[in-house]
Design a protein that fits this description.
- There is one protein chain.
- With about 500 residues, the protein is mainly α.
- The chain has 2 domains: about 220 residues, no CATH class; about 250 residues, no CATH class.
- It contains 18 helices and no strands.
- The two termini are about 40 Å apart.
Length: about 500
């Protein structure tokens, strides 16, 4: 006979299986906020992961086809173009997503005209100033490169604004196809052109091809015909949000690109190429996570913008996961950066191990900062983030030259580390005032993960004196083992201490 205990166990298993199936079905087919975010995140994650893997492979190929000077020149082109682009930025996408009427025809039409007008103005301005920028850097070849690169942003401005409305409606599958499909097309074009041209023009034309790809896919996936009449009431409403964020993109640019502007005047293009490719190695996965979280959390926070407790709970959960994943990764890049660069790009790029290590710390703080920024935007207060970026821009301007002068290439990232750290502390203080964030819960996982990872890093660094460990492959192998150990210890300490994701 079957005992009562066995019967109870079987019933429990059936009950558990039933609950799991029900929860899984609700995620796949339900219309709750959690279900829609999960499905959207899966689409965006798959698209972004595919893009970043292909982009990573592209960089491995290009560093063996093109000289470092090509990457240094391209960094200057993109940085100079970004100046004009950010001055004219009106935050159309964010304004449309945040606005409760963002799905209405008038607002979609207003967004298209605002974005296209900005893109056209941008191309005209870049074409006008291109000769002067080229003269400033003493390189006449930069002028035509600027003009062609600017075409990419003209196509970006002409995207179907129904694609932005799809993000607001949490139809992330459509945006994933548009955004990442266009990027992948551009990567393929860049690789093909690199075999044919073997110079910086392959990078510039590939950049333009990315935006042409997004432009084409946007009208295929989200068909739209812009209105002939400019819907002025909707433009004024969207402009209210944009006005609060005015100057934000330019300030972000100062923080993100000041190092390139200064380095371009102090170092040769080849050295800038080594620097930019090294920091791209850490910025590639960071961009993947930032894009994924930014595109899912902004509409998520917008839907619960009046529920402080729920906002805090989501923020703490997301930040905790980021810390658990990123802190051991910091240790890995610090310990294995030189070996990783040698294997991925070639031995000459190992000289940029210092900037790579510091850039990894900048990337983690930037990830944490980005989630708080999403809360500010969702609640309709982008000006709070603007104050943070003002602080970061001032710190960057003040520190960049003396830092580079004292520490060389790594000084560019040291200045950025101080700037983003200061900005993050400011945003945390503002958020605590806005949502009554529990700082002890917010900081717990970050501190524990950081302490454990630092301990593992010290243990692994003690092996550096062994000649065998200094070789790239053994060095990376030890780093992977240490990284896994950090994950296991962090998980054990946190979950035994009662940490859980609700």
């Amino acid at each position: 006979m079957t005992s009562v205990a066995e019967t109870t166990t079987e019933v429990s298993k059936v009950s558990l299986s039933g609950r799991l199936k029900k929860n899984w079905a609700s995620i796949l087919q339900g219309e709750s906020l959690k279900a829609r975010v999960f499905r959207g995140g899966a689409w965006l994650g798959a698209g972004s992961f595919s893009e970043q893997v292909i982009r990573f492979g592209r960089n491995m190929i290009l560093t063996r086809l093109l000289a470092p000077e090509a990457f240094g020149t391209m960094a200057v082109v993109l940085s100079a173009c970004s100046v004009v682009q950010t001055i004219m930025d009106v935050g159309v996408r964010e304004a449309l997503i945040q606005n409760p009427k963002g799905s209405e025809d008038d607002y979609v039409g207003a967004a298209w005209w605002m974005a296209f007008g900005r893109g056209l103005s941008f191309w005209i301005c870049v074409s006008a100033i291109a000769p002067f920028v080229a003269k400033f850097y003493g390189n006449p070849d930069l002028s035509p490169l600027f003009r062609v690169a600017a075409l990419g942003l003209l196509f970006e401005g002409a995207l179907s604004s129904r694609a932005y409305a799809a993000i607001r409606e949490m139809k992330f599958r459509k945006w994933a196809i548009i955004n990442h499909g266009g990027a992948i097309a551009g990567v393929v074009v860049t690789i093909v052109l690199s075999f044919l041209l073997r110079n910086v023009w392959a990078l510039v034309l590939g950049y333009v091809a990315e935006n042409v790809g997004r432009f084409t896919l946007s009208y295929m996936v989200c068909p739209y015909f812009p209105p002939r009449r400019l819907p002025l009431p909707a433009v004024r409403d969207l402009w209210k949000f944009s006005r609060q964020a005015f100057g934000l993109s330019l300030l972000n640019l100062i923080f993100a690109r000041t190092d390139i502007f200064v380095l371009a005047k102090m170092f040769r293009p080849a050295e800038i190429g080594l620097y930019t490719m090294a920091i791209y190695l850490v910025q590639t996965p960071t961009s993947f996570v930032m894009n994924l979280l930014g595109q899912t959390l902004l509409p998520t926070f917008s839907r619960v913008q009046d529920d402080r407790a729920r906002i805090n709970r989501i923020l703490i959960q997301v930040s905790s996961v980021l810390a658990l994943v990123a802190m051991p990764g910091l240790f890995f890049l610090s310990f294995c950066g030189r070996s990783l660069l040698s294997i991925v790009y070639g031995s000459r790029y190992s000289e940029a191990a210092g900037p790579l290590m510091v850039a990894s710390f900048v990337a983690v703080l930037n990830l944490l900062n980005g989630q708080i920024t999403s809360v500010f935007f969702a609640k309709g207060h982008p000006q709070l983030h603007r104050r943070c970026v003002v602080i970061m821009a001032i710190a960057m301007i003040a520190l960049i030259y003396p830092s580079i002068k004292a520490f060389g290439l790594v000084g560019g990232q040291l200045a950025a580390l101080f700037a983003i750290g200061t900005g993050l502390l400011f945003q945390i203080a503002r958020l605590r005032h806005m949502t009554q964030l529990d700082l002890s819960r917010y900081a717990k996982v970050i501190l524990i993960s950081g302490i454990v990872s630092a301990g593992i890093a010290v243990a692994c660094l003690s092996t550096r004196s062994w000649a065998f460990i200094s070789q790239p492959l053994p060095n990376i192998a030890i780093g992977i083992v240490g990284c896994i150990a950090a994950y296991l210890i962090c998980g054990s300490v946190l979950f035994r201490g009662g940490f859980r994701l609700e």
